[in-house]
Amino acid sequence: MRDPFLIRLNDLLAQIYPDHDVKALSQSVQDAFWPEGTSRRKRARAPSNNLWSERDCMVITYGNSIRDGQHKPLDLLRDFLTRQLKGVVNGVHILPFFPFTSDDGFAVTDYRAVNPTLGDWPDIQRIAKEFKLMSDLVLNHVSSQSPWFNEYRQGHEPYDKFFFEASPEDDLSEVVRPRTHPLLREVHTANGTRHVWCTFSHDQVDLDFRNPEVLLEFLRVTRLHIDNGVRIVRLDAVAFIWKEIGTKSIHMPQTHAIVRLMRLLADFAQEPVILLTETNVPNAENLSYFGNRNEAHAVYNFSLPPLLLHAMLSGSARYLNRWQATMPPAQMGCAYLNFSASHDGIGMRPAEGILPPTETEQVIDRVKAHGGLVSMRSLPDGSQSPYELNITFFDALKGTMKGEDDLQIDRFLAAQSIVMALEGIPAFYIHVLLATANDLAGVEKTGVNRAINRHRWDYPALNAALMDPQSTQSRVLTEMKRRIAIRGRQPAFHPNATQFTLQLDDRIFGIWRQSLERDQSIFALHNVSDELVEIDPVAINLIDGHDWYDLLTGDVIHPHGAKIRLEPYQCRWISNRQ
Questions:
Q1: Which of 76, 438, 465, 558 is the most exposed place for a label (fewest CB within 10 A)?
Q2: Ramachandran assignment for 221, one of left (phi > 0), alpha (psi -120 to 50 degrees), beta (any other)
Q3: Ranges of the chain with pLDDT below 50
Q4: Which residues are catalytic, by number?
């Protein structure tokens, strides 16, 4: 009987590398991912809803988001996680923790080492024993100062064929760009002058996946991470990994085939490995990375942050509702990762085709008024377009289109409650949990717009703030933890539980969730405005004869009783069980 795993692996390799010896390459892939002493499952892990539950919630953080100048940052991070979040948040994404030269970790010099300024592998392992750990596989590019690139410049095998070269004479006009700098960088090598492809910066040189040795190297790196406790592998900038001259060089068929190959390996891994794709692109393109239940287990819900920001600033959930009503439920074995903010800015491309240009302009103007910045990208015609908004999500909500007010915390918590209630797994950037303000000094010091949202907290100062019940940090983290804990006890908030978007007052973002067992329903209502809104219970079809409870306040809601009041930015999670 032919091995189903080998049939699928060989078929994928034939699609990606039709000019190579598929049989030999297949064995090399297996040796890379399952080196001596490890083995694969006999059968693939079947797609199911069991890789996650309503109890799952993640925090996104740099390894040194917290520091004190004395202790290893990874030790401080573990202390913060166990003191403040244990029992409420069960997963952590530690952003690139490797040696690097720029982009706060995303220009990697050594994929096999932990940055010594943070700690070492045992520190990573300790965190992985207590929290579900996500790491970055920065597979599109490598630092221009890395040993790989140095070997390339010297013409040494195998690295002499590791990087994507092009010519200034090539037609690159259709290439989709996320930045404004020239795409090609001229470098001098032992083999003469070359021009290497640099999607993100000239310090981040793109690798050439047309060379199977590049893929094999990343499979070995993935195995190293898994062996050190990583259970969620984030495929950074994966949409750009395959290039062809004369094309857009994004979302290429070979790119999707490589993701399918990695999913195949994950499904046959003994460890429960989850693949997460990071594709900050328009919504339909982003969803394509689910494949047919055979690519990513999870995708970032990239359209959520800009649409959520618009709703909170405008006081209308019109576009957020319209988008959510058209979103397909994740297929079996797949899930959305919901978030409002990350280490990067608030991407505007995922709102394309959803948010009208006039509304986008209003959001940009308000973000600027709240101290934010705008990063641009180049278009094929030579013009530029906003790529992302650089601001902390907390400061983005200082006010509304009307101006600043004193409802910032309420508005902010309402936004985060929407992230918690939606179908999918919620993830919160550490600066969301801590309501961090814009780090303008960081921008001035580094000259990098994204530094505004990458503040490094002094741990003693942070602890002092969290011990003061009146501080913004204490108020926000305390209430965030309360709501996350409530969410984690509701089967109707399972990442794959049924979801239906309610069509109510435009000031209300409402969804109905039903548990997989159909024994719990939650009507999650969120007032995105600074006005009192009243909803007739009949409008949300509360079943008569049942007791209904607001999980957030404890109020009893009667199907034929008084109207449901939502104060400015109030959220109500109305359930048929307490």
A1: 558
A2: alpha
A3: none
A4: 236
